[in-house]
Structure formats: C-alpha cells, structure tokens
Amino acid sequence: MANIAFYGVKPWGQEYLKKYLKGHKLYFHEEHIDEEHPPTEKDIDILSVFVGSNVTAEVIGSLPKLKYITTRSTGFDHIDLKACEERKILVSNVPSYGENTVAEYAFALILVLSRRIYDAYEQVREEGDFSYDNLQGFDLMGKTLGVIGTGRIGKHTARIGKGFDMEVLAYDVSPDKKFARKIGVKYVSLEKLLKESDIVSLHVPYMKETHHLINKEKIALMKKGSYLINTSRGAIVDTQALVGALKSGLLAGAGLDVFEEEEAVKDEASFLSAKDTTDHDLRNVIADHILVDMPNVIVTPHNAFNTKEALERILDTTVENVNKFLKRKPQNIVN
C-alpha cells in the first residue's frame, strides 16, 4: 500500500481516482502547492500535481518519504527536476492527452479574432446593437498559418489549418518530413515562417532553449497585421515585446491561453502577501494587465486542456503511471 497525495484535483476527479486506486491511502486537495502552501501530509510516497503547483526544492525537502511525482500535465517545468534527481525521485508526465483538445482551442482563439466573435457578442449583449458595420473580419481560407512545434498538438493544429484551406508552414528542430508530405505542410526556417505567416500558433514545450523564443527581434520579423496564438507556455513569448508590437500595430491581435506570471495574476492576494517575490518580474505582471485590457487581445485562463474527455485521459494515464511505478516498471519518465 502506498500513501499518495493529489493536489489540484476537483471532487469529480477525486471520485474517479478512488475508483481505480483502491487499496492505497489517498489524500485529496483541490488547492495547489508551492513554498507558501506546502503539502500538509509528510508521510507520502507519491505526489501528483497539476500545472498550478510549483514543486520547488523546498517543497520536495518537506517530504522525506517521497519517491515519485506524477504530474497530470504534459509540461513539467513546474517541478524542480534537479532537486528530484538529487533525491533519486522519479518524475512522470502525461505525454499525450489533448492533441485534438488543445489544437481545437487554438483554432477557437483564431476564429474569435478572425470573425470578431467576442466583439459581436459584447455589442449585442451590452448595447443591444445588431449592426454589423464595425464587425468585419477576414477569411481563413487562403491565409498562411505558421505552426511552431510539430509534436502531437502542433500536427493536429496543422491538420485543422489544412481543413480550412490554409497554407501551412511549420518549424521544428526535428522536422517530420513524412507527416509534411502526407498533409501538405512545408517545413521552413523560423525566420521564414514568421515573415510569411498571417497567423502564428505556438506549440513547443517550455525549456531553457524556448524561453522567450518569440522575443523583440523575432516579433520584428513578423508580417505586419499578423496574429499570434499561444496555447503552450507563457514564457515562450516575451510579454513586454508582445505589448509593444500590439501597441505599434505591427501585430493586429493575439489569442493567449497562457502568459508570463499567470499564477501571480491569478492569485494576486497571495502574491502581494508572499514573503519573497524575487522570482517574479513585476514588469511582466503589469504587462499582463495591459494585455487583458487590449481590445485586440483575447486572454483565457489556461483553459485549452479543459474538456471532459481530455481530463479523463489525464486521470487514466496518471493511474497507469502510479501502477507502473509501484510494479517497478515506471513509464513516461522525464528525468
């Protein structure tokens, strides 16, 4: 029997996990954990978290019996892997649960921007105005979609783009030429993609190499009047550079499900009362608020993963990860 603590899991998820992890001592919490909100159980063998948690070396140090962490996400930048390696703690993720889910959401953001859907909704709801004179959008057919990162989600985004009769350019450090030939995608350099795309959609993991991948210099290459879509990780984009490009008119708009310092913005009360804020860039927190207030920017709360089917796939893989670890056949290891 293992002692397993789940953080950031809703009541329906708790019932789901209880059904498939019988025989173990399970602890459930809806809130996330970080240094300011450490785990309340100290005897746990296995920890399961979601992206809202920040599993630092200090958090790991507070759990003397911890042997395994399974994050219910594809990304794992919220876990200090170096600290885990020092303690010989294995870390697993959920490598595939929502390639269609996140890709569909990316296109939802694209359509909200291209067809002025939110503007139309707000005009009718708030003003009772059914005029369409100021709501002209643009077709996607014939436009060029640039997909940065062609893992599972990026590939599905490219397929949807082809379904809209768009030209699709792709960039990846490891191009999948077989995939490109099959659906008619053209791999190009990052610079060429930025210069030629009407819409750029980001689908790369966050790591040292992708931090501010889209920075001031890269944004300067983008086609005037183009749009940026980010459903991957906030820090892939230099927030202050993005604000500048939107203000100058270089970019016509952006659809953001993620942004830098999103946790600080989501829970500003905790941020303001925190003992140490040196890990946060206050300029980015301010820039986030500017983005939220811009009329040509759609900001959503890291919601691209959030469908019933995807959440069940996440929990199914998490159960498999736990059971495989306990059988000494760990899977989906990231460290």
From TrEMBL:
Signal peptide: none
Transmembrane segments: none
Pfam families cross-referenced by the UniProt entry: 2-Hacid_dh, 2-Hacid_dh_C
Start and end residues of each D-isomer specific 2-hydroxyacid dehydrogenase NAD-binding domain: 107-304
Keyword annotations from UniProtKB, A to Z: NAD, Oxidoreductase
Similarity comment: family membership: Belongs to the D-isomer specific 2-hydroxyacid dehydrogenase family.
Identification of the protein by name: Hydroxyacid dehydrogenase
D-isomer specific 2-hydroxyacid dehydrogenase catalytic domain boundaries: 9-335
Molecular function in Gene Ontology: D-lactate dehydrogenase (NAD+) activity; NAD binding
